[in-house]
Amino acid sequence: MPDADASALLLDASGKVRSDADFVFYNQATHASGAVRHEGKQSSGGGVTDSLVVDLARVEPAVETVVLAASSDGGSFGKVPGLHVRVVDAASGAEIARYDSADASVETAFVLGELYRRQGAWKFRAVGQGYSSGLEGLATDYGISVDEPQQAAPAAPPAPAPTPAPAPPVAAPAPPVAAPAPASPPPPPAAPAQPVRLTKVTLTKEAPSVSLTKQGGTSGALRVNLNWEVRKQFKGWASKLGRAVAMHADLDLDLCALFELSDGRKGVVQALGNAFGALNQPPYILLDGDDRTGAVSTGENLTVNLDHSNELKRLVIFVTIYEGARSFADLNATVTLTPQHGAPIEFSLDECTVPSTVCALALITNNGGELTVQREARYLVPERGVSPQRTIDYAYGWGMNWTPGRK
Predict the structure, then answer these.
(1) 3-state secondary structure string, 179-233?
(2) Which residue ranges have biased composition labelled Pro residues (predicted)?
């Protein structure tokens, strides 16, 4: 089934965006005003919801319409069952409006609805306008500049060989003339705004790796985000053994990383033991904080300074259950790696069917200067008395000495 992504466009009275910054989607998740935010996907009841948060009180006066759109990746919307948009009150959770699209076929993008101003109040209008040209066609229609691959211009035919010109007659030398004062050079032209990049990379079992180097993502900050949702409350792998596994509301997952530098130094970045790392000195990896909500706007985040990628040899990003559950059963999690340059990389974790408390998410390696991201999504089961960190160490051959720690 194709992957569907939500997006929003903020339009002025002309019906167009004021700039590319008025486009909110997976590669540009928050509007500068803070009024519109792309929250990301959550799975529930066999379906997937991609959420946008709109704070109508913060929408700038010049914005008259917020377009609510969706695009598909990997097929048309005719293959996406139950396509609809819901407007829900954030405070009460009550559904204010809903529009179901029942006639999608070859479309790969849809404007599902609009929030618009009318006599000082905000209203919702169902639209249902489809595009067979995908998110690029939809965005361009509203005035977005899209980053497209540049095609080389066809080679010009060779010019004919020049015919020798007759020598000019010799003239008497002209009297010297005072040279005019040099004119001030014109100011350099303003740098053009960078167009919006629509591409993204989804890693799967069939296509589990991508080269950051080939994507152009070898400098700047690489942000790694883990967000999750508990699908069930009291069911899991252990229920088959007659024991219920409880996923509590205070589920605490910790995003961590084992690193090895090019000079042979090894270590771990994690909340346990306050080993949060550093960006501008070894290990050039920073754990942003410790979150318990799983929300994509916060979640668990690691940042890797790719300006020092030549000093990084390999990096295993993994997650452990610190408290709140005995395994990852019934946990729906998504991993997103967003390089400062290049397309974002995302993948989902498979369903956990073993008593695992530690999962290897991704392996980043530097092989001869080429950075590669490998989807691992590998649930590991620690032996009795062995910590999750030591279990990851054994699985990937880090060879470190471990001692107990706490937050």
Answers:
(1) CCCCCCCCCCCCCCCCCECCCCEECCCCCCEEEHHHHCCCCCEEEEEEEEEECCC
(2) 155-192
